[in-house]
Amino acid sequence: MTLYSTQSHRIFLACALAGTLLLVGCGSRPTTAPELPTVTRIMVIPVAPINKLHTENKGVPLGVLWQSIADRVKGSEFNERMEAVRKDMGPKMTAALVQQLNALGYQAQALEGVSRPAASPDHIDYGKLPTSEPVLHVYFNEVGMYSARFSTDYVPRVNLSAYLMTAKDGDSVYSETIYYGADASGDSSGSVPANARDRWGSFGELVAKPQEVTRSYDDAVTALATRIAKNIRASTAPPR
User: Fold this and answer.
1) For residue range 177-217, what is the model confidence (pLDDT) as tens digits?
2) What is the DSSP letter of 126?
3) What is the C-alpha to C-alpha distance for residues 170 and 134, in angstroms, rounded to an integer?
4) Residue range 93-141, pLDDT digits in tens
5) Higher-confidence position of 134 and 32
6) Helices H, strands E: what count in the chain?
7) How far is the C-alpha of 233 from the C-alpha of 39, rounded, in Å?
8) Mean pLDDT throughout 67-95?
9) CA distances from 240 to 149, 160, 171, 237 (A)
10) Does the structure show a pLDDT above 80 at 7?
11) What distance in Å separates the CA atoms of residue 163 and residue 232, rounded to the nearest whole number?
């Protein structure tokens, strides 16, 4: 009995050691990175302008009705003054995306003939798009100026979402929401700090310098288009 037990114990230990070595060997194998999708051509859906610019002042004490009403009036005034800028941001973003994607080696161009509802221009039926190439859909979530609770300065806020997908089946190749300026937190794939010079000490200063505000939004468009192109490049195989 003793000899049998000893032999059984040795066999058990040998099996356990072999199993451990097998697991270690499997665990030490280098993992294979997932293959990136190959994208050569990209059709950019023309970017629609946002319906309204939004000015927000978090420094207003809660419950101060007159100040809240004054801020709404200010916001409407700002929106009226920036009407042409608001409308131009869509075409400027489209052109910037095409330019930045081409600079990284893609064959990019704006997609003509996109059918979109007038009341909701970003509700697009991708199955009806006039292309079989991958499509890039970018739309603004919020555009305006923001003043934080413990600051009198106004800074740009431009937030958008970007989707690169195959036109045939709608599979997503890349998707991300990116925050520029007021809502950015550091410099990362989904966050782009605003230019440090783009801040105004009061609402009066903001509306008195429309050319500076226009330039700040142009800076935002260029920075966001550049970031989107780089993110797509990181998510796809190098274009040939």
Assistant:
1) 999 999 999 999 999 999 999 999 888 888 888 899 999 99
2) G
3) 9
4) 999 999 999 999 999 999 999 988 888 889 998 888 999 999 999 999 9
5) 134
6) 5, 7
7) 9
8) 82
9) 49, 29, 22, 9
10) no
11) 10
What percentage of the chain exceeds 90 in pLDDT? 54
CB atoms within 10 A of CB 205: 14
Residue bearing the bigger pLDDT, 95 or 82: 95
State whether residue 37 is helix, strand or coil: coil
Length of the chain: 240
pLDDT of res. 99: 98
The answer to whether 182 and 206 are in contact (CB under 8 A) is no
- Phi, psi (degrees; rounded to nearest 5) at 212: -65, -40
Tokens of 149: 């609770």
Distance of CA 68 to the CA centre of its chain: 31
Residue 96: DSSP 8-state: H
Determine the distance from the C-alpha atom of residue 187 to the mean position of all C-alpha atoms in its chain, rounded to a whole number.
Answer: 12
The structure tokens listed for 148 are 């934080």
pTM, whole model, 2 decimals?
A: 0.81
User: Residues 155, 213: contact at Cβ < 8 Å?
Assistant: no
Residue 117 CA: distances (Å) to CA of 21, 114, 138, 164, 198: 62, 10, 16, 21, 35
Strands (E), the chain: 41-44, 54-57, 107-110, 135-147, 155-165, 172-181, 191-192
